[in-house]
Amino acid sequence: MTVTYTSEVATSTFGCFVKLLIRWRGSIYKLLWKDFVVYIVLHYIFRFIYRFALTEPGKRQFESISKYCETYVPLIPLSFVLGFYVQQIVTRWQLQFETVPYPDSTAVLVTANVKGLDERGRLIRRTMMRYLMLGYVMTMRSIAPLVKKRFPTMTHLTQSGLMLPQEEKILDNVKVSFNKYSIPFIWATSLVSLARKEGRIFDDYAVAVLNDSFNTVRQRLNRLFLFDWVGIPLVYTQVVTMCVYMYFILTLFSHQFLIQRDGVVGKDVDLYIPIAASLQFLFFMGWLKVAETLINPFGEDDDDFDINSYIDRNMQLSYLVVDGMHADHPPLVKDMYWGAQQFELPYTQATIELKKTITMAQEGELGSAAKVTVPESKSGFVTIEPVEEEDAKKKRKDELKRQSSDRSLHSASPVSSAHALDPEKVPSDAKRQLSTTSEVSLPTKKPSPIRTASPALSQRTLSEAGPSVEDEDEEAKAMKVIDLPISPEEVKRTRRKSFFQHIDKVRQGSVTERQRSASVSYPGVPSMEVKDQSAKSYSKIETHKSQTNDDLGTEF
Q: How far apart are CA 114 and CA 159, in angstroms?
C-alpha cells in the first residue's frame, strides 16, 4: 500500500519533483480536498453575509471583528506547535517501520544449524518457522485492521494452515487476559532443545544463537504492540488539532475583503478567490493531515504498511530457506577471474560514459591527501633536542639542593667532638648505640678500619665488617670512625647475627678455649658462659638459642 516514487527521483532533472505534483494516489489533494471544499464554502458564506445580508451597523461590526482577528491571529504559535508535533509523529513512524521484523536471518540460522535431510529433520525446521510466522500473524491481528479483517478469528488461522487444530486447542486452554502471541515462540524454542537432544544441532552455542534469534523477533513484535498500546498523548493531539482548526476559523474573518468607504480602510485588491488564504490552508492543514496519516502506519491509508503482503512474502521465504534450499548449493567451480589480481567487470554501452566518474570515485577511496607530495629537499628528518620545561628545571634544582643538605647532615658524627668532651650533651640515641655496641664481643678477625664519613656508606657496613676479637674500646673506636647514624633496629640485627655466628663456631670447635670461656652478653639476652664442650654445655647452648629466638624473633 505504500506509494513508491523512488525510481522517478533517482536522477535529479529539471522538474523532477514537479512531476510528482500531478499524482493522485497518496497525494495531499486526496487527503485534503474535502476539508478544502468546506473551508472555501464557509469563506464564501461569510462573504455573502457581509456583503448582502448585514445592515450598515452590522457591516461595521463585522469589519471591526475582521480587523481584530487580522491583528491577533498571527500571535497563535501555529508553526511551532504543528511543526514539533509532526516531527514527533514522523520519528515515531520511522521507528515503527524499522521495528517490523523479518524472518530471513532466523530462517538462515535454522537451515544452517538444524541438520538432517530426512523427513523428521524437514518437519522440525518447517515447524520452527511456522511457529514464528504464527506469532507474527497473531501480533499483527492485534494492531493492523487489514490483518484482522483477513484473519478475524483463531479458526481462520487454523484454516489458513498457520496453526493445527490441536495447537488451537492448546491456545484456547491457556486462560490469560493478555495477548498470547508469545506462546508460539515458546514452542519454537522447545523444538530447538528437542533438535539438540536428537543430535541435529551439534553444539550448545548453536542452540543459544537460535534461541536469541527467535527471541529477537518476539521482542520486535512486542515493541510494535507497545507502539500501538501507548501512543502520542491524547492531550497533545487535541492541542494541535484545536490550534489548527481555530486558526482557520478566525481566518474566515481576517481574510475577508472589506468594502472601501469613508472611515474604513479596505483591502487594496478585492479578489473573488482567496488565493493567499487557500495556500495557507493547503500548507498548514496539509501538515496536520500528514500527522494524521503517519500516526498509525498499520491502517488503511495509502502510505501505511502493507502488512498482508509482508506476511505472504515472509511465509514463502521461510519455507524456501529451511526446506527448499536446505543443504543445497551450486557446484564449486573456478570463476572466470581465477588467478587474476587486477580485473574489471565489463560495462554496457549505456554505462560506458560513467566509467570516468567511477574511476574518480575509486581515487577518492585513497584519501584526500593521496596526491600531496613533499619535495626531496624537505623530506629529511630533523633532530630536535629535548627541551626541559620550567617546572622540570625547578624541580631538578630543588632536588639537588635537598641532596646537598642531606650530605651535609650525614657528614656530621652522631657524637660530635663537642659531645665527646661533654657527656651531658650526648644525645640519648647515640648513648644507646654506643652502649649497646660496646657490649658486643667481636670475633677473632679484626675488620679493616673504615676511615670515611661519606653519606654513601650504607648502614649495613657494620654487619658486613663482622665482630672483632678486640675489647670494647676497640669496638667503640670503630663505631666512632664509622661516623654514621645507626638505627636501633640495625644494631639489634647485628647483635643477633654475631651471637648466632659465635654459637655455630662453638659447635664446630673453631674457637679457642679462651673464647669459649669468655662471657657473651647482649642487651635483652641473659649472659652465658661456655667453659667446655661437654654435652651439658651444648644442651645449655641449644636451650639458650631457643629462648633467644623466642625473644628476638625469627628474623635470621
A: 28
Q: The pTM is what?
A: 0.64
pLDDT in tens, 212-228: 999 999 999 999 999 99
Cell 450598515 maps to which residue? 56
Residue 301's identity, in one-letter code, is D
CB 200, CB 116: distance < 8 Å: yes
> DSSP label at 351?
T
Which of 256, 316, 248 lies closest to 285 in space, CA to CA?
A: 248
Eight-class DSSP state of 261: B
Residue 497 to residue 443: CA distance in whole angstroms: 12
DSSP H helices, 151-233, are 154-160, 165-173, 183-197, 204-229
Question: DSSP letter string over 23-71?
Answer: --TT-HHHHHHHHHHHHHHHHHHHHHIIIIIS-HHHHHHHHHHHHHHHH
Kind and range of the H or E element at 85?
helix 78-99
278 exposed, middle or buried (CB, 10 Å; 0-12, 13-18, 19+)? middle
**What's the pLDDT tens digit per position in 37-54?**
999 999 999 999 998 999
Nearest residue to 530 (alpha-carbon basis) of 550, 556, 551, 510: 510
Distance, in Å, from the CA atom of 268 to the CA atom of 273, rounded to the nearest integer, reads 14
Does residue 520 sit in helix, strand or coil? strand
